[in-house]
Design a protein that fits this description.
The chain contains two helices and no strands. Helix content is 44%, strand content 0%. With 66 residues, it is an all-alpha fold.
């Protein structure tokens, strides 16, 4: 928050007492939510399940039928 006081500026903080900058809170833009948010979407999970099933069927075919 900006300091809008009209008085004298505060004295600089010594290095030993300077607060540590924290990471910003949760981003408000939807495209910055990350991978875990994308994995929670049902269409993506259905797609990954179909791909996994195809890989499983191919592995079973290779192991038992060839």
């Amino acid at each position: 928050m900006l300091d809008t006081s009209q008085g004298e500026p505060p004295a600089p903080v010594p290095v030993a007492e300077a607060p540590v900058a924290l990471a910003p809170a949760r981003p408000s833009s939807p495209e910055a939510r990350g991978c875990l948010f994308a994995l929670s979407q049902p269409p993506l999970m259905i797609f990954l399940a179909v791909i996994g099933l195809l890989l499983l069927l191919a592995a079973v075919h290779d192991l038992y039928l060839l």
